[in-house]
Design brief:
Oligomer: single chain
Number of strands: 12
Distance between the termini: 45 Å
Order of helices and strands: EEHEHHHEEHHEEHEEHEHHHEHE
Low-confidence stretches: 1-21
Shape: globular
């Protein structure tokens, strides 16, 4: 049995042990979170600059969009395309956010966010004019929403090269969506099928703001409705192999007791979309321990009790492998605004990008000490130490 099923280490106490000769797979897991996704872009920039290029990017909603831009471009233009996308969907600020006090920044952000609700985000979504759906009237399923995302379709076509993405040598991409008619979570994986624009659009179709997207005859909504952190896709992948997983969390599972309508709505969103990663990790560890025990028990059997097909079945269980998960949490509280994921103000986008970049630098430092020469832990989760409570965003 493993000596240690799971552990948590911080950047201050990670052991500086050498890696094995076999390079572990690098996975980047990206949550949904609307405008908070600029934090993910900063994380990737830091990984990019430190030659920690992911072999696999898994995303949901805005995470799927960022993932598609990363996987759908040659390395030399990925940062440029990511930055161009986020600049294209940013709202100009009413004031210079660097030269005003925090209360003024909050008021400016509130006005910018209200403008987003009224007019949408250029290059992303726009209100449907004279919309029967808003009046409770029936419409075609592809139009059952308050906003149209036709502009996002054009934007993705501009910033994602789907021919490059589906090249055999490209970064593996997985995006998740929920089948509307049965509630099943479906992973669209470039290792299994060509990924097209509609797959990415479906992963970000969060109702009732955005309409479902039809893929191969079926309607799909945002994968975040089922599981907003697609870590399970990485943990369940076969064949199993040593993996360094950089997991970005945009929502806060923990928070204060709410006392106002705004606080209740904020807490509701955080609870709804916060990571369920520990549940997936616990399930993986139970299976990991059973697989390991089965192999150990087989080795104890007398030779006359071993059957010819046993070795093949044991091989199918996979070798002992270790997942090191470096968790990168977005620490901004955004003044505890319930609409923080709709805050596309340019100052907020830039601030989140920079926070993601700085946090990823600390995460990369942690990753340098992850040992893969032993396989007795199964999963090791590395949490970054909290530096300070951040209020801006």
């Amino acid at each position: 049995m493993p000596r240690q099923a799971t552990a948590r280490r911080s950047a201050t106490n990670s052991p500086a042990q050498p890696k094995t000769k076999d390079k572990p797979r690098i996975a980047l897991v990206l949550q949904g979170g609307g405008a908070l996704g600029a934090y993910q872009a900063g994380v990737y920039q830091a990984m990019h600059e430190h030659n920690l290029t992911p072999d696999w990017v898994v995303g949901t909603s805005i995470g799927a969009i960022n993932a598609a831009i990363i996987a759908g471009n040659p390395r030399e233009v990925r940062i440029e395309r990511l930055r161009a996308f986020w600049e294209s969907v940013s709202h100009p600020d009413l004031l210079n956010m660097q030269q005003v006090p925090d209360a003024t920044r909050q008021l400016s952000t509130w006005f910018t966010t209200m403008d987003t609700f009224v007019r949408g985000v250029p290059g992303f979504f726009a209100p449907r004019p004279l919309n029967p759906f808003a009046l409770g009237l029936p419409v075609p399923p592809e139009e059952a929403s308050f906003y149209s995302t036709d502009e996002l379709r054009l934007t993705l076509a501009k910033y994602v090269d789907f021919d490059y993405l589906n090249n055999a040598a490209a970064i593996r991409l997985t995006v998740s969506a929920v089948k509307v008619t049965c509630g099943t979570l479906v992973n669209f994986d470039s290792a299994q099928q060509p990924i097209q624009l509609d797959h990415v659009m479906a992963s970000g179709a969060l109702p009732p703001g955005f309409a479902p997207v039809r893929v191969d005859g079926d309607l799909y909504w945002d994968g975040g409705l089922y599981s907003n952190t697609p870590l399970e896709s990485v943990l369940s992948d076969e064949p199993r192999q040593n993996t360094l997983c950089m997991m970005v969390d945009l929502w806060h599972a923990d928070g204060p007791e709410p006392r106002t309508l705004e606080a209740v709505q904020t807490r509701q969103k955080d609870v709804t979309f916060a990571s369920r990663s520990q549940r997936h990790i616990d399930a993986y560890l139970r299976q990991y321990q059973l697989r390991k025990l089965a192999r150990e028990l087989y080795e104890r059997l007398p030779s006359d009790l071993r059957q010819p097909g046993d070795r093949k079945q044991l091989a199918a269980l996979g070798a002992d492998t270790t997942f090191h998960i470096v968790r990168l949490p977005y620490a901004g509280r955004d003044w505890n605004m319930a609409s923080k994921d709709v805050n596309f103000s340019k100052g907020s986008i830039q601030w989140r990008w920079e926070q993601g970049y700085q946090d990823a630098l600390r995460g990369i430092e942690v990753s340098q000490g992850c040992p893969f020469d032993t396989a007795d832990a199964g999963v090791v989760v590395h949490d970054l130490p909290v530096l300070t409570e951040l209020s801006r965003g």
